[in-house]
Amino acid sequence: MKKRDRLEVIYDILNAIKNNRNSIRITPLIRKSNLSSKRFLKYYEELLETKLVQKIDSKNIKYTSLTEKGLAFIEKYKTIKTFVEDFGL
Amino acid sequence: MAPHLAPFAFYIELIFSLIVTMTCFVIYHKTKELYILSKHKGIEYFRKTFLFFGIAFLARFFLRSAIVILPRGAKPIFLRMNPWMGTISFIVSYASTMALIYLIYSIYYKKINKNILKKTYIIHAFAITIALSSMFFHNKIIMLILQFLLFILFGIISLKKYRNTKKNTKNLFLVYLAIIGLWIISNILEVLSFFTPVPSIIIYTISIIIFAKILDKVLKSLTIK
Fold first, then answer.
1. CA distances, B149 to each of B13, B142, B184, B205 (Å)
2. Which of A22, B89, B138, B175 is deepest in the core (most CB within 10 A)?
């Protein structure tokens, strides 16, 4: 299987959140992202930092959901991917 | 003096340089959203390439405007001694060197050590040193040699990447090489074209076609959903 690049991994994580009614706990998200815990946390930190996802506390349970920016990323993913490929970036 | 021999041609050259400047800034602006969403390093360097090219062309527009505006006889002395002209000349050298470095970065950043990529101040300091030496010595030779070396480096990298890329990206490497080549040629011609702007107009015409082609490709890529 071809190794996913950074953009593909981010897309897969965001899509997993979206497909779970935009609210998911961290453990199933790690499983759905197909990454090791260490690699997942690296990406997760980045997603929080770039405000593509946000943490939500509900009844003492921590969830992760997409922000507006995260939804925009999913919407524009194909454009970003095509752009990167077209310009050899 | 040149403007009095062919003022019309000088105005055409100025208009052409503004078109190239605008094209660069439009490319920079249009790709903003993609970068904000993805924080993709390649897109970042690609955008910076056109930002710095835009600044370089704009600064050169002001430099060349002085030839048209200034009174007869005062130009060569003015261009050499005036601190404002010196500053603009510095900006041209600095921005164009940075544009070439970022163009190399945009296609080769995956192979460059991440620690080196983080230390961007080193390349800025390098470009500033080259620009300052060009400004103080009133000599573009150092900058031209450096930019020619970057041109060679880009050629070698492109050749290495050429084999493993899609057909449309292969053409893009040639377009990039043409941009760098044209910039270097136009710098050489700038000295010669102090007396006639015609060669510069030809170079600008080719530059407009190339930059417009890149802008067209950018706009087409952005419409894909």
1. 27, 11, 11, 25
2. B89
Nearest to B45 by CA among B135, B117, B152: B117
pLDDT at B1: 44
Say yes or no: B26 contacts chain A, CB-CB below 8 A: no
- List pLDDT tens digits, range B152-175: 888 888 777 767 666 667 778 888
The residue type of B195 is F
B106 — contact with chain A (CB < 8 Å)?
A: yes
SS (H, E, C) A5-70: CHHHHHHHHHHHHHHCCCCECHHHHHHHHCCCHHHHHHHHHHHHHCCCEEEEEECCEEEEEECHHH
A61-66 and A53-58: which strand pairing? antiparallel
Do the Cβ atoms of B40 and A89 come within 8 Å?
A: yes
**CB-CB under 8 Å, B217 with A80:** no
Looking at residue B70, its pLDDT comes to 65
Residue with structure tokens 């961007």? B120
As a whole number of angstroms, the distance between CA A35 and CA A41 comes to 9
**What DSSP assignment string belongs to B141-171?**
HHHHHHHHHHHHHHHHHHHHHHTTS-HHHHH
* Cα–Cα distance for residue pair B78/B67, rounded to 1 Å: 10
pTM across the whole model: 0.86
Which SS3 state, helix, strand or coil, does residue B115 take?
helix
Tens digit of each residue's pLDDT (9 = 90 or more) over B113-154 = 777 777 888 889 989 998 888 777 767 788 888 888 888 888
Whether B204 shows a pLDDT value over 90: the answer reads: no
Q: Which chain B residues are Cβ-neighbours of A76 within 8 angstroms?
A: 33-34, 37
